[in-house]
Amino acid sequence: MRRLLAIAGVLVVAGLIGLVAIILWPIGHDEPEIALEGNVRDGAYLARAAGCISCHSREGGEVLGGGAPLVTDFGTFHPPNISPDPEAGIGDWSVAQFAKAVRQGISPQGHPYYPAFPSAFYAAFTDQQIADLHAALGSVPAVAEPAPPHEVGFPFDQRWGLKLWRAAFEHAPDVAPVEGRSEAWNRGKELAEGASHCAACHTDRNFVGGLIESRHFAGSDDLPGGERAPAILPAALAEDGWDVDAITDALASGMMPDGDTFGGAMAEVVAGGTTFLTEEDRRAIATYLMEGR
Fold first, then answer.
1. 3-class SS at 211?
2. DSSP 3-state helix, strand, coil percentages of the chain (rounded to 5)?
């Protein structure tokens, strides 16, 4: 009995040591200061492509003052105020802090953001893109009211657990151009796999919210608010009547091949994002989706 108690004691101590190690485990790395001058117009375009405005702006609310709640199995997440207000928003962030938040998903205080913020898809943003995006977000009117805090219960309110989640599931997207593919296909890959983060909705997740890579673009029936996203693989798209022209048009108008219109989250994506893209970029996304990886 004493031996069993001793073994149990050792296991408890080891577990506590492991827990403390995880809590104290530093994540990410410091971003160097970016001295590049940001281009507001280019940054605004990237903000549209990346969904910043549609996510962080509630219908009827102030631009970038905080978005509509995302109701999930893990709790309700409130997209924060990212206007240039120094207290309620991100107005006092340096460009380096902004870069760490966007590319690494880590706050200026060193805390990991919840995966509701798709930072992994932005990991390949260049320094110039970061500078442009920072300049664009800083050009809108400041909103002094902070967004509500997340409503997340135990154990998901323990952010140290996200360190393990990040190690297992958060990976930078493959947006590198592929030799031999068309310029449109490569641009579509850059947008669909990166900034526009199509996989965030159109890929199934496991029981802890990690994307299932083998289900990439195969659709999901378990989105926030009970919504679903269809498969956007070439065969599935063709079967549903899509082609490059139809996708290009739908990303501008929200009109589907059958004459119906997008609803829910996809309607917001179009209205707040893809409708502002150039026809060339919308066609690039369509080309990438229809031709496949």
1. strand
2. 45, 5, 45
The two beta strands, 70-72 and 75-77, are antiparallel
pLDDT of residue 8: 43
**CB contact at 8 A, 92 and 100:** no
Q: Cα separation of 204 and 216, whole Å?
A: 7
Two tokens, residue 54: 């549609």
Half-sphere exposure of 148 (CA within 13 A, CB side): 11
Alpha helices in 182-233 (DSSP H): 183-190, 199-202
| Placement of tokens 């530093």 in the chain | 26
pLDDT at position 1 over 90? no
Per residue in 39-51, pLDDT tens?
A: 999 999 999 999 9
Best CA proximity match to 220, nearest among 206, 236, 231: 231
What is the 3-state secondary structure of 251-286?
HHHCECCCCCECCHHHHHHHHHCHHHCCHHHHHHHH
- What pLDDT is attached to residue 80? 96
**Residue at token pair 């953001």:** 113
Residue 221, both tokens: 């029936």
Count the Cβ atoms, other than its own, within 10 Å of residue 90.
Answer: 21
d(CA 62, CA 79): 13
Q: What is the pTM of this model?
A: 0.89
- Residues 6 or more apart in contact with residue 233 via CB below 8 angstroms: 217, 218, 292
DSSP letter (8 states) at residue 218: S
